Amino acid sequence: MEEYLKPFLEIGREIYEFLQSVQEKSGMGREIGTGADGSPTKFVDRKAEDIIIRGVAENDLPLNIVSEERGIISRNYQKNLLVDPIDGTFNLVNNIPAYAVSMAVCGSDVSSTESGFIMNLASGDWYYTARGHRLVMNGKECKAPEKRSGTFLVHLSSKLDKRSLELISRARKYRYMGCAALELAMVASGSADVSAHLGRSAPLRNIDVAAGVMMVREAGGTVVDGYGKDFNLGIDPAEKKNLIAAYSSSILEGFL
Question: Do domains 5-141 and 151-253 have the same CATH topology?
Fold first, then answer.
């Protein structure tokens, strides 16, 4: 299980320490180019990506790299490392403590993910799992709480349709964090019941969710796309889909 944990922790902590050393976060958000999916590249995204690329090389990890900024970096291996160097850059720049690095080892698609790591870069808390193993948070195995909170983490388009409204109606409380990786880790660990990204403005990329989707599934949860089919994406970082992740399939049965 721990094949990738040590290098991922080292990389995550280096990014965390870099961000802690920066006194003024606003400058981190300046645009310096365009990413692989056509969205603007921020200075902090490129800096974090550089740390990951260097960490992969220094640890001699047998992986190609698929990242938000540079796209697919072939290193002539069979497996891929899907990385979002900073998920929640807007939060970081505006001092909202919900932003993360996400790293996932997979084959040709998200469903083939075999290990995943997410670190909350505002707090240093981290999550890790490998196929066939339970989720670990900060080195301790997560156990699902006996009583769930009924909290849904949702990102919906400004124009809500009937399906979105029905989903919200099932929640005791709902929030939007602006960091899909952390939302999925929270569903997997039991802090939330559902993470949903629905509508035209809400689709997610493989780099955003590969690690988190695996965590939810390994914890016994269900992840589907906007049509209710098993969620999956290839390794093209420009491809996007809506997503609903729930700790239990029973939550989604009536809705789907």
Answer: no
For domain 5-141, give the fold: Fructose-1,6-Bisphosphatase; Chain A, domain 1 (3.30.540)
Strand order in the sheet with 140-141: 71-73, 64-67, 80-87, 100-106, 115-120, 126-130, 136-137, 140-141
Q: Give me the tens of pLDDT residue by residue for the chain, a chain 256 residues long.
A: 578 999 999 999 999 999 998 866 667 777 777 777 767 778 899 999 999 999 999 999 999 999 988 899 999 999 999 999 999 999 998 889 999 999 999 999 999 999 999 999 999 999 999 999 999 999 999 877 666 667 777 776 656 566 666 666 666 667 778 899 999 999 999 888 899 888 777 789 999 999 999 999 999 999 999 888 999 999 998 899 999 999 888 777 766 6
- DSSP-derived secondary structure letter, 58: H
d(CA 249, CA 62): 35
**In this structure, what DSSP letter does residue 160 have?**
-
- Cα separation of 129 and 215, whole Å? 6
Any idea where the domains of the chain sit in the sequence? 5-141, 151-253
Give CATH for domain 151-253.
3.40.190.80
User: Residue for token digits 């280096």?
Assistant: 14
Both tokens assigned to 117: 């790591």
